[in-house]
Hints:
It holds the Pfam family Sipho_tail. By secondary structure, the chain is mostly beta strands.
Amino acid sequence: MYNNSINEFGFSFAGSHSSLYNLKIIDIRRVVIPPSSEIVQNIEGMDGAVYQGNNIGQRPFEIDVKLVSNTHESRLADLHDISDWLWSDKDNEYSLIFDDEPDLEWFAHVSNISEVNRTKANGFFTIAFNCSDVLGYMEKETVQVAVNPFIITPQGTRRSNPIISMIPYANTRKIAVVQDEEDRWAYLGEDVDPETGNIGVDKSPLVYQDECNTLAPWTTLSSSNIPFALENGFIYNDAKMISNHTEFRIGSKNGAQFWGGNGTTTENWHGAAVMKMMDAELDNWSVKFVCHNYTYYPRAKGKVELYLLDKNKSKIGVMTLKKNSVKSSELILEVKLFSGSKNTFVYSGTGPTKKGKTVTKTVRVKLGGKTVKVKVKGTNKTKTEQAWSDVKIAETTTTSMFSNFYGEIILEKRGNKFTLLVNKYNKSRSQDPKFTPIRITKTLNDYKGLSLSGVAYYNAKMDIYEDNPKHAKGYSQQGMSMSFLRVNKLFENTPSGVDYVANSRDEVKFNAEDKHVYINGTIQQKNWAIGGELPIFDGGHETTLAFSHSPYEQIYDGASHNLIRNSTWKEGKKFWTNGDANGNPYRISNPEADKPDSSIFSIMAHTNAAAQNASDLIFVEKGKEYLVSCDVRLTKNDKSSDIFFCVRTFPDEEYTNAAAVATSTFYIRKSDYPNWTINQWYRLTFSFTADDNWVRIIPYNSDVINGTRVDYREVKMTDNLTDIIWSPAPIETECAEIYIEYRPTRG
C-alpha cells in the first residue's frame, strides 16, 4: 500500500511499492521539461540561423532513498531484493507512479543506481530513472459515441493515442474512421474486387455465435446423459456450469469454485459440461473458441475443453488448454481429431518454456485426532485434539508459451486440410505483442469426412494433495472460462468475390497506441488500406471524428432495438413460417404511400383455424417483460371468432410452433378492441412477461366463418416498455456500437 502521509511517501515501480523494500524517500528530483537540444541550420552569408525546432530527450527522475535496516545482514538481504526488483536487461519499460502524484503514470527504465553509502545499518543511494515516452498518463477515459460525426474535446494537456472500437450489427465489407482536422483516416475492406470486378460474397456464412452471456440455449450434461466419452474425465453432478453474463465458468459452493467430488480425485479430471447442437451439418467449417486459463497457485491443475460433435453427438475433435502438472505453471495446448478408431493431433505441446525458480513450501496438514485426558472442575474428562504435521511440497514458477492464456483458438477444415490458428490477447482484447501467433496447416486424408453439427464445453480440475479434506489446505484454483464461440460454414473451394471484412458483432479496433487495426484481437494486414493514419488527440483541443457506421439510436431517433428479423416482410417469408392452412391464405403486398418502405403481410379469408404466421424463435430473458407493437387492419370486426395475434413461449429452440408444446400462449382478440373501425390501420400495443427463454410472435387469423382478412405491417418486439415506434432489427442496419478509449496525458 502507498504511504500517503505528508512527511513520508514512496513510489511504485513494475507493480511493487518501495515500502516493501524498506526504502524511505529523501528527495525526488524532477525536471520541468525533458532535456532538449535545438535543431538549427546555418546558411553561409546569412545572419543567424534557421531554427527547425528542438530534439526532445528522455524525461529523467532521480530519487534519493534511505534503506532502513536494523542489521548489516538485513541491509544486504534488502539490497539483493532491490537489485532483483530494479534490474532489467531487456528493452522494456515499466509503470512508475509516485505517491504524491497517484493519478499520473510514467513508463520508465532504471538508467543508473549510485553506490550505497552506509550509516550504521542504514544505506543511502540514488535511483535514476529515464522515460523514453516523456508524457505522464492519467486514468483511462471511455466514451460511447452517440452521434456521427462526433465532436470530442479530450482531457489532459498533451497528445494521446485513442483506441476506437466499432462493433457492427451486420456483416460489413468496409469499416472506417476519419479525423477531419488532421486529415487522418483509417479504412478496412472494399466493396468490389479491383482485379476481377466481382461484388461481395459471404465466404464464411455464420452458423452459430454465442457471447456466453446465458446458458439457456445449451443443454446441461450429466454423468447419465453425456453422449460421448470425455478425455480422461468425468462429470460430477454436484458441479454446475454458470454464466456471469460475460463467460461460462464453474459454479461455487460455500463461496469457492467447486468442480464436484470430495477432493480425492487425483488421477482424473472432473467438472461440469454443457452441449449445443446446431441445425446444420457442415462438411467444411471454422470454430473459434475464446477462453482463458490462469494460474494463481503453481501446483493447481485445471483445463478447459471444447469438443466438436457430429450429428450423432459423437466427438470428432477437441481443443484443450490444460495445466496438468503440480511442478510448474506450464500450460499445454492440444488440438485432436477423431475418426472412428483413429485419432491424431493437429498440435500438442507447451511451446517455448521459461525456466523459473524451484522452491519447497511447507504445508501444515491434519493428521487426525488423538484422545487426551483433561480436568474440568476437578473431574477427569476426555476430548479429541487435532494433530497436525508440516509437509514439504515442491513447486516451480516455470512457465510456457500458453501460461496465463486469454485468447482465441481457431480450427478450420476445408476438405482434407485442417488449419489451426492461435492468438493471445492482452487485457484490452488486442493481440498480445509478446505472443507470436500460431498458424499450422496439415493435410489429413483420413479425416476429410468429419462433419460438424455441435459442440460441448467442459470445465474441469484434477485434485492435488492440498484438496484432500484430511490435509485442510486452501489455495487459489485455476481461473478458467469460455467467453466467446463462433461457428462458420466454409467452402472447400473458396468462392470468388470480396469477403466480409467483419461479421456481425465483431469488435474492430483502430488502435493508435500500437498503430495496428484488430478484429477480435487479431491484427489485420490484408484489408488495411495503404496510406491510412490512425487518429491522434491533442489534450484540451476539440476534434471531429466521422465513421462509416452510425449509432443505431441516432439513425432511428432514439428507438430501442427490435428483436424481430424481417419485421416488414420486405424479404418475403424469410425468418417467418406459415401455418398449414387450407388454400394457403397468406399474401405479401407492396407498401402503401404512408409507409413506402414497409410491405404488408395479410392472412386472407379462409376456412382453417391454423392460419398463423410465426416468427423464428427469439431468445429472451425469462421473467422479463417485453412490449409488442404492430400495425393492424381488420376488414371485419365480428367477435364470434376473434383471435388475430398471439405470442407463444417455449423452453427450447428446437420446438416447432405448436400450442401443445408451448410453455404458454398469449392471445390478442378483436373483442379487446371493440372501437376499432374496419379497413383502418391501428397500432396494436401490448406487453407480456416471458415465462420461458424462447418466444414466437404470431400474426393469427382465427376467423373461419365471417371471411375476415387481417393485414399486418411493421411489427416490433422490444424490452423498452414505452417504445411503440417501429425500427428494424439492428442486424439489418448499417449501424454499429462505437466506443473511444484514451489515456489523457500531461507533460
